[in-house]
Amino acid sequence: MLRIDRLSAWYGEARALREVSLEVGEGEIVTLVGRNGAGKTTLLRCVMGLHAQAEGTVEFLGADVSRLAPHRRARRGLGYVPDDRGIYANLSVEENLLLPPVAGPKPWSLDQVYETFPRLRERRRSPGTRLSGGEQQMLSLARVLRTGARLLLCDEPTEGLSPLIVQQIGGILRDVKDQGVTVLLIEQNVHFAATVADRHYLLAEGRIAESMDNAEVRAREHELLGYLGI
Ligand code: ATP
């Protein structure tokens, strides 16, 4: 579904990604793990077309989208869930859900959103400012699904959340996958990553250092946590 070929990115003279190549198949959940500064956020932003200083190819559903503007990639079904969650604090949950233009090929109805995120139905009249971190994360995911994304690019959705909420987010991601949405997510909690995802890439200093399956991540959990400094 997504094929990245020799993607490089820069911030001025500083190189953040070095010829990264990876693939994500339709229906998979794939994680990107790596130390702070390894280039994970830059990689997701490049896939969405949000980082200008980039070279290489991003192919989505068989078409080269490397030169398309972000909104045109969204129309084809790419959806970016930023780490700052990007919700409108002064609007209610439901207003946030109604706001994004329904651009992509498979938009979710409000009902479909509330089926998958029952907590958001309960909180539909609450303003963004009153939501917990977990509820904000759910709203941020739900907004992108509303736009009709077929591939979610999630920047560390579990960061700063309690273990119970992390589990809930995991359940939601699996549910989203069952509804035909593919997910590429940044995830530093390798234990959680191995329970929610199908495969993993380790990014180190802007390069793909390793590609791992769940069994390997489980077997090397301790070593990986040490490496990531967690
Ligand atoms: P983190 O989890 O800390 O966000 P990351 O793996 O997502 O880490 P990136 O944020 O993609 O890493 O950063 C990759 C490299 O690019 C780092 O060396 C970082 O310092 C640099 N970088 C990121 N954003 C900028 C920026 N706006 N200006 C200059 N350099 C940047």
TrEMBL record:
Gene Ontology MF: a single term: ATP binding
Pfam families with a match to the protein in the record: ABC_tran
Keywords annotated in UniProt: Amino-acid transport, ATP-binding, Nucleotide-binding, Transport
ABC transporter domain residues: 2-230
PROSITE patterns: ABC_TRANSPORTER_1, ABC_TRANSPORTER_2
Protein family according to the UniProt entry: Belongs to the ABC transporter superfamily.
Identification of the protein by name: ABC transporter ATP-binding protein
Species, as recorded: Actinoallomurus acaciae
